[in-house]
Specification:
heterodimer; A: alpha/beta; Rossmann fold; eight-stranded mixed sheet; 11 helices; B: alpha+beta; 2 domains; three-stranded antiparallel sheet
């Protein structure tokens, strides 16, 4: 079975998408066969327009129109990765976003079944790692993806108020769904408390990534783990990948 | 002057009553929805409200798609009789559908069409 990781955050702006792109690229760069899916149907990121375009949308999987392998596109040549690098985008067209926002619970229940089936299809196609870039907070699109994943990585900016929110999500979503969860403290400042793991749950913190202006600026135009593997940010991503390998092997 | 202020007060109260009636009407239509069996849909938010044992069973069934009590017990590492009991509880709650195929009974996540 493919290792399926949902990248989640309790609020937007935590650097979740940037982290997801770089983690997926790191896996592909070392020869793993990877699939990165943007499952944030309500606020599609199009992976910040960093990766090549595709003809089909992740929305088609949730609608049952296409299977996951018809939707994803291998961009390993364009990205220069050793392993296969499949990507699937959510449709950023406002009509598609509005349509998703009006879906009822029955549709969401079916969407969960279809996403479970997609995970199986990806495993059968020989994908080693599936990374689901979810929406922030708690709604159907994000929790469906969490339910499908084997592991959840929660990306958050450190701070006491955020620690409380994190505990709510750990206790109210991750734990009841029986997920292995890890924390990435992102955009850390030395003068800020950096413990997001919470006293109550004490989850493993895989990395504390310092706040770096050039990551924010360059992240819009390049995938740092591929263009500058020795950058502090890239090194942290590779360390996280190694920690995950140890945990899951 | 007094007449004017009492008229204004009456209009204010009527608006308040009108607002309350609007809310009652909205509430009424929400109740009707649940009567139509929509509450039976097993979506991920409902999954989160289930007790632990039923949530484990239902999550495994989401993954398997359709399964017998035997197949489900194998996945959850529990006794077949225990899983069969949980599955039937979920059937009674309207979340899971039960179909017989020859000698075997298959369970699957329901479509939310009522009990």
């Amino acid at each position: 079975m493919a290792l399926t990781i949902a990248i989640h955050s309790y609020k937007g702006g935590s650097g979740k998408t940037s982290f997801a792109i770089n983690l997926a690229s790191a896996y592909a760069s070392v020869g793993k066969s990877v699939c990165l899916l943007d499952v944030d149907l309500k606020a599609p990121s199009s992976f910040n327009y960093l990766l090549p375009e595709s003809k089909h949308w992740v929305n088609d999987i949730f609608e049952g129109r296409y299977g996951v392998m018809d939707v994803v596109k291998d961009v390993s040549k364009e990205m220069g990765t050793k392993g296969a690098f499949y990507i699937g985008y959510s449709n950023p067209d406002i009509l598609a976003v509005r349509e998703v926002s009006s879906k009822d619970r029955k549709w969401q229940s079916k969407a969960l079944k279809l996403l479970m089936a997609a995970k199986k299809d990806l495993s059968n196609a020989g994908i080693d790692v599936v990374i689901l870039d979810t929406g922030a907070g708690v709604d159907f699109t994000s929790v469906n993806a969490i339910a499908v994943a084997d592991h959840v990585i929660s990306v958050g900016r450190p701070g006491v108020s955020r620690q409380r929110l994190m505990e709510q999500i750990i206790g109210g979503v991750y734990m009841p769904l029986d997920k292995d969860c890890y924390i990435i403290e992102n955009m850390c400042h030395s003068d800020n408390p950096t413990d997001l793991s919470g006293k109550k749950f004490d989850l493993p913190v895989l990395a504390s990534i310092p706040c770096m202006c050039d990551v924010a600026v360059r992240g819009d135009n390049e995938v740092l783990v591929l263009t500058e593997p020795y950058h502090i940010f890239s090194k942290k991503i590779y360390d996280i990948m190694e920690s995950l390998d140890k945990i899951t092997s | 002057m007094t007449d004017n202020s009492s008229t204004e007060e009456m209009i204010r109260l009527l608006r308040e009553i009108s607002g309350k009636l609007d809310r009652i009407l909205i509430q009424g239509s929400a109740d009707k929805e649940s009567d139509d069996g929509i509450l039976d849909v097993l979506d991920v938010m409902t999954l989160l409200t289930l007790p632990d044992h039923l949530r484990t069973t239902a999550t495994a069934l989401f993954e398997l798609g359709s399964a017998t009590a035997d197949e489900l017990a194998e996945k959850t590492n529990k006794e077949r009789a225990v899983e069969s009991n949980y599955l039937n509880q979920l059937v009674r709650m309207g979340h899971v559908a039960k179909n017989r195929n020859g000698r075997k009974v298959y369970f699957s996540i329901g479509e939310g069409l009522g009990k």
